[in-house]
Amino acid sequence: MKTVNKRKRELIESLKDGLIVSCQVQKDDPIYTDDIVVKMAEAAKWAGAVGIRANSPEQIKAIKEKVDLPIIGLYKIWNDDTDVFITPTLESAKQVWEAGADIIALDCTSQITHEKTKAFELLQIVKKEIPEAIIFADVSNYDEAKRAVELGADIVAPTLYGYTEETKNIEEPNLREFARMCRDFKDDAYVMMEGHLYTPEDAMKCIYLGAHSVVVGSAITRPHLTAKRFVDLLNGYQSNWREAERSKH
């Protein structure tokens, strides 16, 4: 059953049929400046976006001070022994919440974390420790989405399709599986689309299939990766631009 909490429900409903822009930058990105994520978020609001997805307490706080839109917050922390990097610990979730995020995004896949736990196990811990937070479950497939919904995720999205060992070679979204998620989980959670959306038409397909909202990042806010996609094709696919997108920072 979808959350009955009035505040949570009103916030999530405010995102319906809208665009959430992922405004993220790493210090080794060629576009990095101290204020670049704030400029991204301001541009997103100007364009009519309904929300922002942001990484790290520092960047969440900076955006929150300047842009009055709901924020899906996460904290990317990379370790060499795992592919789990999105808000992988309770402490990182608390830092995201304290920075001002309205929604906390967690890796809810079956992958093993740096702490040797299964990523999805953190979901219920965060719900208990930060009950006021809305939980956004990042998953990579239908079964992980089903489990996240059963564990109490408020929102679920196939964000990590393409970022797990089983899916790392894909470049396009699995819209058939996404449509199945929308049909099967619509009464129990809000299903959003995130990942591998490169055009407005891609986003509209997902709304048509049942997405509550869509999240778009690289195609809007990471021009170096957009350029790399073009170069990759023009060079006859001798390299894969997604290796840069998937790189650890």
Description of the molecule:
The protein has a single domain (6-245), classed as Alpha-Beta Barrel (TIM Barrel). It is 39% helix and 13% strand. The protein contains 11 helices and 9 strands. The chain has helices at 6-13, 36-47, 57-66, 90-98, 122-129, 142-150, 175-185, 200-209, 218-221, 223-234, 242-245; strands at 19-22, 51-55, 71-74, 103-107, 134-138, 155-157, 190-191, 193-194, 214-216. Helix 6 (142-150) packs parallel to helix 7. The longest helix is centred in the first third of the chain and has 12 residues, at 36-47. The mean pLDDT is 96.
Q: Gist?
A:
This is N-acylglucosamine-6-phosphate 2-epimerase. Helix content is 39%, strand content 13%.
Relevant terms:
249 residues; alpha/beta; TIM Barrel; 9-stranded parallel β-sheet; globular
Number of helices: 11
Proportion of residues in extended strands: 5-15%
Helix content: 25-40%
Provide the residue-averaged pLDDT: 96
| Radius of gyration computed on alpha carbons | 17 Å
Q: How are the strands of the largest sheet arranged? A: 7-6-5-4-3-2-1-9-8
Unreliable segments (pLDDT under 50, ≥5 consecutive)? Answer: none
**C-alpha geometry:** globular
In terms of topology, how is this protein built?
Blueprint: H1 6-13, E1 19-22, H2 36-47, E2 51-55, H3 57-66, E3 71-74, H4 90-98, E4 103-107, H5 122-129, E5 134-138, H6 142-150, E6 155-157, H7 175-185, E7 190-191, E8 193-194, H8 200-209, E9 214-216, H9 218-221, H10 223-234, H11 242-245
Parallel strand pairs: 1-2, 1-9, 2-3, 3-4, 4-5, 5-6, 6-7, 8-9
Helix pairs in contact: 2-3, 6-7
